[in-house]
Amino acid sequence: MKFIKHLILVLLALLLSGLQPLAARETLADGSIARIHQSELPPEARDTLRLIERGGPFPYRKDGVVFQNRERRLPAQARAYYREYTVPTPGSRDRGARRIVTGEAREYYYSADHYRSFKRIMQP
């Protein structure tokens, strides 16, 4: 019983300290976010990038809303710095798990797993 209490306390301390499990991060050895070239993205993500560049119209009501970055998987920035956009998932009846998040400095990130991990999109 003591062991379980100790384990719970350790896990709680990690959670409160803001540490994230390594599996949740797609980082390189130097600590930076993994990268993906635009040509490696699924076709739906490339279509979403074109819509973002054009300014819409977007197919989902939540496209363009502020992305909070609560899990701190993207670099820390001021509130409302990031915006999120849906990448349609073929066969899905809802928005699915794929997203593109943009930053004010025109950086783009792709998440295939509903914000659990990101890859920085490298523009041509």
UniProtKB/TrEMBL annotation:
It holds the Pfam family Ribonuclease. InterPro entries: N1-like, Ribonuclease/ribotoxin. Keywords: Hydrolase, Nuclease, Signal. The keyword Transmembrane does not apply. Residues 1-23 form the signal peptide. This is Ribonuclease N. It comes from Uliginosibacterium aquaticum. The lineage of its organism: Bacteria, Pseudomonadati, Pseudomonadota, Betaproteobacteria, Rhodocyclales.
